[in-house]
Design a protein that fits this description.
Chains A, B, C, D, E, F: It catalyses: tRNA(n+1) + phosphate = tRNA(n) + a ribonucleoside 5'-diphosphate. Six copies of one chain form a homohexamer. By secondary structure, chain A is of the alpha+beta class. Chain A has helices at about 80, 85-100, 105-110, 125-145, 180, 210-235; strands at about 15-20, 25-35, 35-45, 60-65, 110-120, 160-170, 170-175, 185-195, 200-205.
């Protein structure tokens, strides 16, 4: 079997996480996974959305966007069309949910952190890269808050990282790029913590339904891939 | 363990599928799962969306809505707010994807079938009920097309049905109602075919991450539940 | 003369009003007039819109919607299009106005009741059916408020019900269904109280202008029809 | 009885219809009824909306707007708010329907005339003034088309004009201004043809329901008022 | 050289400023420059936008609109399209900025004045006419506030007026009408104060780039034209 | 005088233009002027907007956006708000106009090039940086088209670059950063060609009006600054 990218089935693309790239944001990270490139910024605001007011807890939320020419053919600018697509909304809900899963919202106090994940270049796996990069931005923003003495301790309880896997010509493979993703029979995103716990599993049959055994094979690859991503997060944050 | 509904962990709610309820639609089904009630209609149109024109294949798509007072407290009417929520869009994308997974789009010819899933009463599991009920509406609409001689054979290759499962106080349980869903630690939706294949798996940790073993326990329950739903679909369609 | 429905000129369609159909709403009624079917729910909220704050009075308002496949050919979902049509807005303004005409807003206190009228099946006369059914939902919601001790007395001063009439091949006929409505020369909606007073009259010439005599003939039919509808409302509400 | 305006019950306000006020429009009329002032323009376009294409008939439609400071306190600009209110849509639908009622759409050929009715100053009765003024603009636009040889004969079969009447302290009065309208018990708009036929009747009880006798009294006043308006239309169009 | 209008290069069109034309607005002016006609109203409101609250200063802002048939061919109604064009927004930002440049916002107290500039007829130069006319409306509104004792002194520090100039067949000309504007090589708008100071300069090359010398020639013409407009403003306001 | 940035009055910020940064776009350039950073991409499409069809000419247009955290405090995402601000629309109109001024649209054939200018980091002068960077992206896209043989010759007739100048504490200074811009008395943007011609001049008095002499002093600085920017464009494009 030769997957289009020529990588071994269990090999991630070249990954880099560059922390602190934003002049203004309290935390930021530019993540590259192969030709996918996402700028993640974390913005701190000293209040919470209306539905949480007065409850002594914080909030973490995310917004996702793609520059019109991040893709092979230019897409419409969502601001010009006047609304975000269903896909955009689905992705930003996933990112927010994934990060809240490892955050102690009580420990934040009444503050909101908004993660903006903007895709500068897209080559598959942008939602997973957004989660992995946003964790770094969030970590750095919390560190900033601690340094500014607006938070007493780090509200992040664990890492969270994500990777997509798929079945390509019958073989489970890790970290699909766009060419692979568009031809995979099954495609699954896994969001996992540093302890190996599952935060989100999203598997979709593109053609034939998939079996329990296939789901487990993909999960095993994902576990392998996120372990590497978690190491990169630690390095990017100087966590030794 | 006593789950709020008092049901055994592997027991579905009372299910009913009433076919042919719509005066106008080519196919329809009113599905009730406990107090959740969804009206599913299938509308046939003799053309395909622009991105498919001239390719000799059909399209199946879905729209989802909830009446403002389907829920405990009245929600905003999406038509009045001027846009569909991210949740609505995510659900209708899931319904469409699930039905297309068991449809032979080539066999349809250049026709579109739109499934409208409108929640008249909500008590948890509305997206799963929508998929299960929409399959019946779609089957009936295809039968109508065959009877009208606009399709030569049945384009549905298999059944598809969905059920949610969750971990409630440490115990995996089947078919969450709203009270259970809002307190479950983990919540997963499974979309499965008549052959037991997986079409979609969506698992989300609401609190603590979940383990592979827990995912498999939920999958086992889902397999049990969908088997029953598939029997109900056959009965509703008079498939013996 | 044989009108398309075969009914005598002064005969209503088969009418039924089913109260209390909604699991969640404080008041509800499913009204059927022939093949027209409207689900009416009344939702109580303990505050008034900004323009009424601090004036010690309540508010009654309505929203109207039609399921996409309530009609012969599927219509666009207004939530997906991003706005309500002019027709929808005109109808919901009429429903709200009609109900306020028989409500003692002062006696309500600073509360709002929203009537949602959602057409499950359309065969002409949906706006009139909405008014007639919404009155029952409103009455039941007020009773609920009295039982909860948030209102001291019933704020409804009278019944209100509505019916459409038209001139079909020169003959005034009562309660047009869709087939009749689309061919009527003149079409008029009458909203009347239990005392026989007029709340709204909306007459429209579809072809030739109509005369004063014709307007009066239609009014006479409407008086006859609404008298029957008022009896059904009393029965539905158990008012003897 | 002294109505606020001091006018006799059956007296119109000072009326003027100034034809040809627009530099660009094919037909136009500035109508003043007391302090209500509406600029009506008719724009001719050589095609019809999609739903009429290829049927060999024309279309007449209307749009209505109000300058933000036409009213006592400044209203929001609808273009800035991003949508037209329900009231605006209801009015423009009424204007279009009224004019189509006296137009032979077949005789127009495949052309569309759009009537823009923009309220420069509002003091009650803007929808009625719009109809009366728009008829003049439409007549002049049709004359322009005949002169340009794009229409063989005048497609207008009759005049149409409108006036509001109301019951003020128990007395039926003609042509309500804003001060009268806001205190009237009942308020009715009548759209009538040159032959005295009724095109639209819209009666609304603002407080107590009204009776058949009251409706007839208002209709009698309207007949008197529109007769005068029709004379003014003839003069404005030089019809002798 | 014969410019299309036949005017001498340094000649304004026929100008008139009619103050006090609005029945309701606190200040108003109908300005005509040739066939361009703009109704300017100033509306006073006793509060400021959120970003200025509690700062003890006022705000002056503008909105701009064009009636659909103000132009040669009918344009879409922005309220119907659901948004204001980029051009509209650019113009209303310019009008607001120009008026604020000569207003002592501190002296206003916490009040907002909104200038509505609605183009009844367009023949070029509508943004400049709007500024010139809006100044008169604003002056009159401030006088009204002083008379009502809500302002102690006149917050306007100077006049402001605007005119467009352009290069037509190589010759700098003043006050372009539509025919001239659409063929000019360069087009520039100048907003100037009574003291001859510049508030805004906006020069645009339509074809070939323009030179510094050409810019200065246009500025000279503008100085000449605005001097005349300032005299008309004084007359319209009765400033002797 | 010491301007906040410490630069000499006629000194640009550190400028860099990095060509070819986008994996997908036919032309691209990342421009940095100090801490302002704009990603410019040029996308080629083989058709023109409806208003140009069949005229044998091309079109160049621009869209502008700012990442939410490009600024000191996070701004709303325009896609989420559902519309582009007036500022955004004004800027993208300016960019498009500036580039069209040096493009031979006839020489393009019926093709459209869309320049997307997305601000990754904002520190003043983003619209000017966008124009300067977009020229490089456009040049590279045209070269791509020539290489692909879809254009016979280079449609760009000249360079275009832009810079802002302002009067800071009475002294004219070049290339304002955000801190300087927010305190400048007058602020002007100049768009100039390689031949020194003016394409756009936009001067605005922030406080006191400015004089002709001041306008000329700013223009002189701009001429100096754009000369340097043009050299950088040539280097970035390898034009020797």
């Amino acid at each position: 079997m030769n997957r289009p990218s020529g990588r071994a089935p269990d090999l991630l693309r070249t990954v880099s996480l560059e922390p602190g790239v934003s002049r203004h944001a309290e935390g930021s990270c530019l993540i590259r996974m192969g030709d996918t490139e996402v700028l993640c910024t974390a913005s701190v605001e000293g209040r919470v959305p209306p539905f949480l007011r007065g409850q002594g807890q914080g909030w973490v939320t995310a917004e996702y966007g793609m520059l019109p020419r991040a893709t092979h053919t230019r897409g419409d600018r969502e601001a010009a069309r006047g609304k975000q697509s269903g896909r955009t909304q689905e992705i930003q809900r996933l990112i927010g949910r994934s990060l809240r899963a490892v955050t102690d919202l009580k420990a934040m106090g009444e503050m909101t952190i908004t993660l903006d994940c903007d895709v500068l270049s897209a080559d598959g796996g942008t939602r997973c890269a957004s989660i992995t990069g946003a964790w770094v931005a969030l970590h750095l923003a919390f560190r900033h808050c601690m340094k500014m003495n607006v938070m007493a301790s780090m509200p992040l309880r664990d890492h969270v990282a994500a990777v997509s896997c798929g079945i390509w010509q019958g073989v489970p493979v890790l970290d699909l790029d766009y060419a692979e993703d568009s031809k995979a029979q099954t495609d699954a995103n896994f969001v996992m913590t540093g302890n190996g716990g599952l935060v989100e599993v999203q598997g979709t049959a593109e053609g034939e339904p998939f079996s329990e055994a296939e789901l487990l094979a993909l999960l095993k690859l994902a576990r392998h891939g996120t372990a590497e991503l978690l190491r990169r997060q630690r390095t990017a944050c100087g966590l030794g």
